[in-house]
Specification:
By secondary structure, the chain is an alpha/beta fold. It is built from 15 helices and eight strands. Helix 4 (137-146) links the parallel strand 5 (128-133) and strand 6.
């Protein structure tokens, strides 16, 4: 796939550190992103990434994403950068999009829920917050309802309807027109038809931001996948599940959102016990960096995650055996972004000894899987041991 672009953090450098292709003000953040791959239960390859520091939060993928290009985006990079300052962020390209497999046919809620389950296991996190954005919100709600023991907090932004969406009369004509525009214009050089969707998602964006979103639509997926996912998302039904959600829930929604009407948030808030609904003064489905609604969003999320920032986030807080001095030394060097060979040279150890110390530390901290290194470093940083 070529070289990966990375992202923010207060130094939760991970096992893979790749420098940005072009220097800019976010280069230091992007170089900390660690891109990995796992498999869904039907063998679909899923691309996921981890960055940031703080309690873990898994962002349930929305309709359009690309793990690499989002970091260069004047539409998305502030979201990734700022959220990474308050949490360890795990995000992924959903099936059929971005760096994940495009050759798929099942875009149902159940398929996407199984993907999230596989992704969770790949991260190694025992407990975490969930952020369901836009089309990813039903998947997040279903997971929170079905796995209450894993979800510490649930955040929903730009939520879609919890019930199937049906169209009749003029509304059906409009929807069929949208589907035709995707089939005809999604993959073309000319962004004429894609610009219609761009204006729905970010009507107050600058021309530069709109051009970038026009391009994201084309590079993120195929016309066939775009139509198939649109149909599958409209068929989603989680209405009977969401009353079973027990995790503290924060719902944020732009009051003027045309891609996902504010009424969706009201429906969801009515059904999730003790959910809190926050109105954001914006007409953008994707909040932009320079609008007050973005500052409000970030403030609300930071405050909501506050209890998790002081909790143990699913890691073993009182392990039977404390970390040894040498294990802490190795993790401190890992927190600097050093690979095992560099850690060995720094501490005068063999690479095999470094690997053994890391393995022992992972066991004591209760982390496992492909993201064990990132989770262990995050635990050390949170506890002020680095």
């Amino acid at each position: 796939m070529g070289r990966f672009l990375g992202v923010p953090a207060r130094k939760i450098s991970t096992a893979v550190n790749v420098h940005a292709l072009q220097p800019d003000r976010d280069a230091g953040h992007r170089s900390d992103q660690d891109v990995r791959f796992c498999r869904g239960l039907d063998d679909v390859r899923l691309a996921w990434a981890i960055h940031g520091s703080g309690p873990p939060i898994i962002v349930v993928s929305c309709w359009l994403s690309h793990l690499q290009h989002d970091w260069r985006s004047p539409v998305w990079r502030h979201f990734l950068r700022d959220l990474g300052e308050i949490a360890t962020v795990v995000r992924y390209d959903e099936r059929g999009f971005g760096m994940s497999d495009w050759n798929v046919s099942d875009f149902s809620l159940e398929a996407r829920h199984r993907d999230l389950e596989a992704l969770v296991e790949a991260t190694g996190f025992k407990r975490f917050a969930l952020l369901g954005m836009s089309g990813g919100s039903p998947v997040a709600m279903a997971y929170a309802a079905r796995h209450p023991e894993r979800v510490t907090r649930l955040i929903l932004y730009g939520a879609v309807s919890p019930e199937p969406t049906t169209f009749e009369g003029p509304k059906l004509d409009v929807e069929e027109t949208f589907r035709s525009m995707i089939r005809v214009g999604w993959a073309t050089e000319d962004a004429l038809f894609r610009r219609v969707f761009t204006r729905i998602y970010i009507p107050n964006a600058s021309e530069e931001q709109m051009r970038w979103f026009d391009d994201l639509e084309r590079m993120s997926t195929s016309p066939e996948n775009a139509v198939a996912t649109r149909l599958a998302h409209q068929a989603v039904d989680v209405a009977e599940e969401i009353p079973r959600i027990v995790a503290p829930t924060l719902i944020l929604h732009a009051v003027g959102d045309r891609a996902a009407p504010f009424g969706n948030a009201v429906k969801v808030a009515r059904e999730i016990p003790d959910a809190r609904l926050v109105e954001l003064d914006s007409t953008n489905h994707i909040l932009l960096a320079d609008e007050p609604a973005w500052a409000r969003f970030l403030s609300e999320v930071r405050a909501f995650l506050g209890p998790d920032r002081w909790a143990d986030d699913g890691l073993a807080s009182n392990s039977a055996e404390p970390l040894s001095g040498r294990e802490l030394d190795v993790l401190r060097q890992a927190a600097r972004g050093l690979a095992n060979q560099a850690i060995a040279a720094e501490l005068g150890l063999s690479v095999r000894t470094v690997e053994r110390h890391l393995s022992n530390a992972y066991g004591k901290l209760g982390v496992a899987g492909k993201a064990a290194r990132a989770a262990a470093v995050a635990a050390v940083l949170r506890r002020g041991l680095a």
